[in-house]
Amino acid sequence: MKLGVLVSGKGSNLEALLTSEASGALRTETRVVISNVAGVRALEVAARADKKNLVLTNESFSSREAFETALVLQLREHGVEWVLLAGFNRLLTSTFLEAFPDRVVNIHPSLLPAFVGPLAIRQALRHGVRQTGVTLHLVDEGIDTGPILAQAPVPILDSDDESTLAARVHAVEHRLLVETLRRIVDKGFALSRTSDRPRVVWND
């Protein structure tokens, strides 16, 4: 599996991915890391792992379509087959998604469909729930609405604040990301479209 990784921030999931690749624990190959924000830590993570990395800022393009067309061009130039969104803070449209049909994966810090959007950990704390979690899903044009690949729970403790809960959620993200990518590589899946919403069916 030849991966392109889109990032906007610290890159802890990218780091977990690259560490697993380097150790041989994961049979994927990250071909390029692209950030839409200059100077973020994720670019340093990629550089330390000797991975090609570059910046395409939103503001450098006249439209969302132009930005996504440039993303697709870069990914294709690097031989990318699958795309991982690892803390990428921009919604993608059909311009991008049709270039990689059912091959764009996102990591989200909640048990979807609960707490969609960028502030999921804060939302979970504010709603007083006793459990949140992590979801890996395929990306569609909605906000965190694509078919679910895997989920794992994370309990919320009475002593938790946003920082402590985020640390535990991120630890589960790292594990679930590697496990799910390994399952895609080893087993593969199909999409069942027999209901209103597509559903992932694993080839186990």
Describe what this molecule looks like in 3D:
The chain is α/β, with parallel strands linked by helices and 204 residues long. It has one domain (2-202): Rossmann fold, CATH 3.40.50.170. The protein is built from six helices and nine strands; from the N terminus they run βαβαβαβαβαββαββ. The chain has helices at 12-23, 41-48, 64-77, 94-97, 120-127, 162-186; strands at 2-7, 29-35, 53-55, 82-85, 104-108, 131-138, 148-155, 189-192, 199-202. The chain has a seven-stranded mixed β-sheet. Strands 8-9 form a two-stranded antiparallel sheet. α4 links the parallel β4 (82-85) and β5 (104-108).
Key terms:
two-stranded antiparallel sheet; Rossmann fold; alpha/beta; 35% helix; 204 residues; 6 helices
Topology readout:
Elements: E1 2-7, H1 12-23, E2 29-35, H2 41-48, E3 53-55, H3 64-77, E4 82-85, H4 94-97, E5 104-108, H5 120-127, E6 131-138, E7 148-155, H6 162-186, E8 189-192, E9 199-202
Parallel strand pairs: 1-2, 1-4, 2-3, 4-5
Antiparallel strand pairs: 5-6, 6-7, 8-9
Architecture per CATH nomenclature, i.e. the level-2 architecture: 3-Layer(aba) Sandwich
Write down the overall geometry.
globular
- Provide the domain count: 1
User: Which strand order do you get reading across the main beta sheet?
Assistant: 3-2-1-4-5-6-7
What does the oligomeric state look like here? single chain
Helix and strand composition category: alpha/beta
Average pLDDT level: 96
CATH class division: Alpha Beta
User: What is the strand tally?
Assistant: 9
Number of helices: 6
User: Which range does the strand content fall in?
Assistant: 15-25%
Element order: H for helix, E for strand = EHEHEHEHEHEEHEE
Q: Under CATH, the topology is which? A: Rossmann fold
Please name the fourth-level CATH homologous superfamily. Answer: Formyl transferase, N-terminal domain
Q: How many whole angstroms does the radius of gyration measure?
A: 17 Å
Distance between the termini: 18 Å
Report on the biggest sheet: 7 strands, mixed
> Helix share of residues?
25-40%
**Which consecutive residue ranges, at least 5 long each, have pLDDT under 50?**
none
